[in-house]
Amino acid sequence: MLPLRPTTLEIDLDAAAANIRAVRRLVGPQRKIYAVIKADGYGYGAAEMGAVFASNGADALGVADLSEGVRLRRRGITAPVLVYPNSLPEAAATTLAHGLTPTLVDLDGARAYSAAASGPCEAFVKIDVGLERLGVPAEEAAKTIAAMMELPRLRLAGLCAHPHDSAGGDPAYAEWQLGRYTAVVDELEGRGIPVPVRLFAASPFVLKFPQTYLNAVDPGRMLYGITFPGETSPVPLSPTFRALTSRVIALKDLAPRERFADKAPFPVTAPMRLGVIPMGVADGLNRLHAGRVLVRGRMARSSSSAARATSRSPRPRWHSGTVWVSTTWPRRLALASPACIFLAALRSPSPNPNARRTR
Description:
By secondary structure, the protein is an alpha/beta fold. The chain has two domains: 31-224, Alpha-Beta Barrel (TIM Barrel), CATH 3.20.20; 241-358, no CATH class. It is 28% helix and 22% strand. The chain contains ten helices and 18 strands. The protein has helices at 13-27, 38-42, 46-55, 66-74, 92-97, 107-116, 138-149, 171-190, 203-208, 305-310, and strands at residues 8-11, 32-36, 60-63, 81-83, 103-104, 121-128, 136-137, 154-161, 197-201, 216-217, 241-247, 250-254, 272-276, 292-295, 298-302, 323-326, 333-336, 357-358. A nine-stranded mixed sheet has the order 12-13-17-15-14-16-11-1-18, with no helix packed on it. Strands 2, 3, 4, 5, 6, 7, 8, 9 and 10 form a nine-stranded parallel sheet that branches. Helix 1 packs across helix 3 (46-55) and helix 7 runs parallel beside helix 8. The two termini are 14 Å apart.
């Protein structure tokens, strides 16, 4: 059956499986891996990515808000799911009804879960060690957590953090944040409160600081083959992105304007043929371009003013790949999106016939 819209994102699930296995080799068999699939699995599909990670070595999954966890359960994902702090205390009953593990950041939230639970309620507590956002301040954490554990039915499943990865990856800064975290662990255990899971290292720290692995890690973007400039992975990673393909849905011939040429959305200095492909900002691709696309293997430049503006901005490594468009190649062709925001050129090998997911 022909797609209702001729734009397809191809995802390589074999690459995702290889990446989680590579992280397992890196951190060893004794540590737990919480595979992060927030933001709909970084845009690749949370249920599909979650199923692959869970069946290839992940011990649990991590999501950024409660609605993501609920959707996973509705899609049949039964793996343990850690919900990072995002929802209000009123959502406690919904969290527990779907078998999700909450993350607490204050006593109000802890009281809500204590009241909503009908039996033992395991929860994580997030410690703010440097990002200065959500989390119990490290200096107050032991006292606050001890008060939480006095509430009926609450059990401490573990501590998590979101350490700040500064520009340049300063090892001293990383050690300072790790020290703030481990000081909380030590004080809690001195109070007789064990910390079963010690979750500190996300992708930047997994890639650069092995001393921060503790007994669990929660990698995100690296599981999708994403690294930033200046990062070198200690294990091979493969991009889960395979190809973005579309079709030209309209062709038109343009001539230079006689009036208001300087107001045109893009320069037309000579007769040219314009092709339009059905992609825009709703596809989440306003940053994913290099001002050009491939049409049957030949380069065509983008005519979008936004594409020209943003193509000069630095882009992380995953912002490269290929847009493949099928049409008859005219002598001169420029392409524009209907929303006039971009046309992407993403560097990629030719489409993989074994890519197993499309969107």
